[in-house]
Design goal:
Elements lengths: L1 E7 L5 H10 L3 E3 L7 H10 L6 E5 L11 H10 L4 E7 L2 H10 L12 H11 L1 H5 L3 E4 L5 H12 L9 E8 L10 E4 L20 H8 L2 H23 L4 E8 L5 H14 L4 E6 L5
Helix pairs in contact: 1-7, 4-5, 9-10
Length: 284
């Protein structure tokens, strides 16, 4: 039996994740008190209906029960029930925006400021996040992207635990993404914006990629960037880092940064790292 525990920050997409697991034919349970995890897992394992895939949402709505999570995880282990933890996260400003859009109070601080609830919840979940098998940052995810990422891990088996490589292309004139660990400026590369037939296209188009990569400095830069990432990523993993966010920026975030982000993502992905590529400004 594959037993998956879904947890993470409120507003990061736990309910959407549960729906994605349902679509993958998992038996799903929402908001189960952590103290009941071992008993629920045993019931599923011993069920006459032979339940082979289970996903359970455990979140801060469990209140005082949440402190029982680690004791329950130890019990699961002692009972010989393997489990995997998926932790959903997002940048603070994204979480605030989502709560405001849905006009919802934060469950940790329902009568106070949303950001205060987020700060408190993040502190409460720090240890859980550290022990998670998969950490997905949904800051730039659409619903479809979250579903696709979960399908990659749990349906197709394209996984690399421990670390997720997020590559974000952006335009400097629209601001630097706040959650980047590493920033690379590719404004020194030849700019397709000044080529009339390439201006309306973007770095997802082969014509733009061919133009950018036709220059030696582009090829040398990409090779050196790949070498640097191959050196850095294992060291980040060794230090326990669960996600590495790489920002690739050009002037407008449409041509050069998109091209380099795509090609770097292809090269890193070929090393069997779980890689997510996001183009923040390509259609702005």
């Amino acid at each position: 039996m594959r037993f998956v525990i879904i947890t993470g920050m409120s507003g990061a997409g736990r309910s959407l994740a549960a729906k994605a697991f349902e679509d993958m034919n998992y038996y799903c349970m929402d908001n189960l008190p952590p103290s009941l995890l071992p008993e629920f897992a045993k019931l599923c394992r011993e069920s006459s209906k032979s339940i082979e895939k289970v996903a359970v949402v455990v979140d801060i709505r469990g209140g005082v029960f949440f402190k029982d999570l680690f004791e329950s995880l130890e019990t699961l282990q002692n009972e010989g029930i393997d489990y995997e933890i998926v932790f959903l996260d997002a940048a603070d400003e994204i979480l605030v925006k989502r709560f405001k859009e849905h006009r919802r109070p934060h469950p940790v601080n329902p009568t106070g400021r949303i950001i205060e609830g987020i700060t408190t919840e993040r502190a409460m979940l720090r240890e859980v996040k550290d022990k998670s098998d998969y950490i997905l940052d949904t800051s730039s995810f659409t619903n479809a992207m979250l579903k696709e990422e979960l399908n990659e891990i749990f349906l197709r088996g394209n996984i690399q635990k421990n670390i997720t490589i997020s590559i974000i292309s952006f335009g400097f004139k629209k601001g630097i993404p706040v959650d980047c660990d590493l920033i690379f400026d590719v404004r020194f590369l030849p700019n397709p914006h000044y080529i009339e037939e390439l201006q309306p296209l973007n770095g997802n188009d082969k014509e733009v990629q061919d133009y950018v990569m036709d220059f030696e400095q582009s090829r040398v830069f990409l090779d050196k960037l790949e070498d640097m990432m191959k050196f850095l990523i294992p060291h980040y993993q060794k230090e326990g880092k669960s996600q590495l966010v790489i920002g690739i920026g050009c002037t407008g975030g449409k041509h050069r940064s998109v091209t380099i982000a795509n090609l770097l993502g292809d090269r890193i992905g070929s090393e069997n790292y779980r890689t997510v590529i996001t183009h923040r400004d390509v259609y702005k």
